[in-house]
Structures are given as C-alpha cells and as structure tokens.
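Second attempt. The first submission of ABC transmembrane type-1 domain-containing protein had a stray character pasted in from the spreadsheet, which I only caught after the job came back as garbage. Lesson logged: always re-copy from the clean sequence file. Corrected sequence (278 aa) follows.
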Amino acid sequence: MKHRLEHMGRFDLICNIVISAAAILNLFPLYWMISSSLKVSQDVSKMPPDWIPFPPAVQNYKNLFQTGHALTWTCNSFLIAIGTTAAILLVSAMASYSFAKLRFWGRNTIFLAFILTLMIPKEIYIVPLIKVMQYLNLKGTYIGIILPNVALPFGVFLLRQFFATVPDSLRESAWLDGGSEWNVFTKIMLPICKPGLSALAILMFVQTWNDYLWQMVMITKDSMKTLQLGVALMQQENNPDYGLKMASACVAAVPMILVFFVFQRYFTSGITMGAIKE
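This time the job returned cleanly.
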C-alpha cells in the first residue's frame, strides 16, 4: 500500500510538471505580446530579445489613444458586443423555452431542422445575407451588424436543456396561482436557468468581440469601425510600428480576459449544469 501511494505521488508530480510546462508554453504568446507593447518598434525584432523591457515604452499606449482612434473603436466594439449579446439572450431564451416546455405540432422536427443549421459555416451564407441587409437598407448600420447574429441557433441549443430540466410541476403551480405563461417564463424559469444564461452571455460576448469577417463587410464608415478592424488596419500599414500594433492587440484582448476571470465561476457551472439530464 505504501509503495502504491509513493508511485501515485510520483505520477502526480510528473503530471503537474507537464501541465505547468504546457501552461507556460500557452501563456508565452500573451507574455510576448504584452512585453512587445512596452518596447519601441526596433526593439521588438531585436536579437537576442529583451525579455523584460526596461524602461517600458508606455508611449505606445499614449499614442494609441491620443493620435489614433482606439477609444472610438473600443466604444463601438462594446456597443456591438453588448447589444448583440443582450438580443441573443432574449431571443434564445424565449425560443428554447418554447421548444422545451410548450407543446405544439412538429416541435421536435422544427428543433432538429433548426439545430442542423449549426453545421453550415457562416462563410457559405454570408453573401446572400449581405444582399438581404442591402435590400433592407441596413448595411452600414449598427442594427445591420447586430440583427443577423441574433438568429444563430447555438443559444437555443444550449438553453433548451436548461429549461427541459425544470420540473413541469413548477409551471403547474404557477398556473394554479393565476400566473400567465409570461410570468412563468420571467419569474420562475429565467431565475432558475441563470447559470445557463450567464454561460451563453460569456460565449456570445467573446464571439462578437472577436468577430472580424461580418464587421468588415458590414461597416462602411470609419466612425463605426470596431477595435478588431482598427487593429487589422494597423497591421496593413506600409511603415508599421510594431510596438504600437502590440499595444492595440493588448487593448483588444483585455476585455475578453476580464470577462473570463470575472465570470469564470458562472461559465463553468453553467456548462456543467447544462450537461446534466433529468
């Protein structure tokens, strides 16, 4: 028994060393991006590299916000990401509640057809979608950027399982007390499924924040450019300032990192609860 415990202890030590090494390797690009953002342009490609920039070139961040449009890009990114996330939560919650709790003809068939669209890459239908937005005169507007993302089926797929695990007896009790279907949905179902809503909100915020293709084809005004488009624009300059580019990339990554760390507990519990079947 003692020999077995010693063997398990050595195995755990080796596993921890391997995991730690893998974590360091995965974090190295993030460290290099932050380190490079604090260097002048010529020092970024210097060999051998300066692993710790001294003195740090904080001027890159000052130039980014003073001479560039980083503040406008950031505000646009937050507006689009928050607006899209809120709309997806509202529509997905109502649709998934209908599929999980309401009884109507062809419910399972419609849900299956709806979920099958998950297998269609966005690049396939992006051209006809642009045509639709042009026909509705929504190209180059915030609504045109947000609205098509609201119909994505992933949110319905994720939340349906949460609503399905809620006992029907709760709905029946609310009906006996005179509650309407809307009251059951808003006052009983949504609070119970809060972990799933939190997980979906995190996933959709990060996805929208990182969305480049759809924003690129829909945004026609410089004043509407997002942080992702602004960073990409800086990458295409003929005389690049690598330190300034890295600073802009750091600014673009900060909101995603903060969202993950702040809401990590809700994200983990939401995904876990969604996997539990009644």
